[in-house]
Structure formats: structure tokens, C-alpha cells
Amino acid sequence: MSIWEMLAVLAAGIAAGGINTIVGSGTLITFPVLLATGLPPITANVSNALGLVPGSISGAIGYRRELKGQTARVLRLGTVALLGGLVGAILLLALPSAAFDAIVPVLIGIALVLVLFQPRIAAAVRRRREAKGTEAHPDGGIALLVGLFLASIYGGYFGAAQGVLYISLMGLLLTDSLQRINAVKNILGAVVNGVAAVFFLFVADFDWTAVLLIAVGSTIGGQIGAKVGRRLPPTVLRGVIIAVGIVAILQLTLK
């Protein structure tokens, strides 16, 4: 890489780390930049996954206050995310990218609808439970586990707008604040990126320069994103999620 390409990758890493911590979808910034430097798609994807791991951890640390009291939930959901991420990483090396091209924009679109109407849907579900005298599962039940497993498969495969999928699922099935859900999302993203990264270290080609630049950038961005994201009111955070999701859909469908 030239010095200017290295600076571009570093800047993309900072932006991706910040966006991943607040919403997700940082891959939509780093992946095209890596391709522009001349890296092959698979090498760029693998290098990106490796580089974003420190950023995910940085963002999770930045949200540590919102994680208090969620240890059991994180362990339960994190185990599912780990398994899904490993499956996705394996699929990345076994399937052509076209296998996910058609379905991903649809998934993100559905997720955005759920995020937009989540307060109304959650209120309706709560009223129905009260009428029946039942209580919500504290960790979302089997429906959330299955949904997160599938979302994590996608995350291990590519990961663009993975955070939007996580937030929509947890926002619908967990009775908790959006900020606490976002904190769990950051942990799940770190788990998926981490397991995919370990897998790729042994079986895939990657570019160490790209990995290190994105790692440094995303670590810085993760701290910036945590400071910004934790201050956003729920309505504003929801708006940011929807805006980023729309951009993701446009980029994935128009590429």
C-alpha cells in the first residue's frame, strides 16, 4: 500500500469502529476501501474481519456500564453468536458471495421495520401478556436464540448491518432499554468477529498491513462511538440505526 492508501484504511477503520459501536455496518466503510487498495474480495473480507475485532472489544468496554446485571444473558446469547459466527466463517470459504446477495437487503429491510415499530410492537405484546397473565422470557426465549444464531451466521460470513439485525431482534424480544440492548449487541459483534478471526488465521489469506491499520483505527473509533452512542436519546439512536440500515440496503443493492 502507498502512504495515502494506508491513511485511507486507517481512517476507514476509525469510522467503522465508531459506527459499529453505535449501530453496526462499519464493514460497509472498510470493505470498499480495502477493495480500492487492490486486495482480492476474500482477502479484503478476511482482513476486515480480523481488523475489526479490537474495535468490537473497544466498543464493548465503552458500554461496560450498560452491561451491568447482564452477565448471564451475555453468556447465553454469546454462546449462540459464537456458534453462528463459526458457521458463517466456514460458509465464506465454501460458498460464492452471490449466495447471500439476494437475501441480505431483504433481511436488513425487515430489521429496519422492526426497529422503527419496536416500541409499538413491544407495547402490544406486553398488553397481550398482561391480559393472559404471562411474563416475557428474561432472555428472549428460543425465538431470540434462533434469530441470533441465523444473524450470527451472516455476521461470520460478511457482517454488513449485522448490528441492525441484532438490535431489531433483541429490541422486539427483550424487555430492556435500547442502550442496554446496544451494549449486548457490541459483545455479540465482538464474539462473532473474534471466532471468525481465529478461524481465518488458520485457513485463509489476509493482509497484515490492512489488519493492523483497521485494528488501530477501529479501537480508536470504538471509544469514540461509545462516548457518542451512550449519550443519544432512544428516539435519536433509533433514527441513526434506521438511517445506517437504509444506506446499507442501497449500497448492497446498487453495487
| Distinct helical segment count | 11
Q: Summarize the helix and strand pattern as letters.
A: HHHHHHHHHHH
The structural domain count equals: 1
Proportion of residues in β-strands: under 5%
Gross morphology is globular
Q: Write down the Rg.
A: 17 Å
Describe this structure in words.
The chain has 255 residues and is an all-alpha fold. It has one domain. It has eleven helices and no strands. It has helices at 3-22, 27-36, 41-62, 71-94, 98-101, 103-132, 141-157, 162-173, 178-203, 208-229, 234-254. Helix 1 packs across helix 3 and helix 7 packs antiparallel against helix 8. The mean pLDDT is 82.
What is the element layout, followed by pairings?
Layout: H1 3-22, H2 27-36, H3 41-62, H4 71-94, H5 98-101, H6 103-132, H7 141-157, H8 162-173, H9 178-203, H10 208-229, H11 234-254
Helix pairs in contact: 1-2, 1-3, 1-10, 2-3, 3-9, 3-10, 4-7, 4-9, 6-8, 6-11, 7-8, 7-9, 8-9
Kindly list the characteristics that best describe this protein.
mainly alpha; 255 residues; single chain; 0% strand
Gist?
The chain has 255 residues and is mainly alpha-helical.
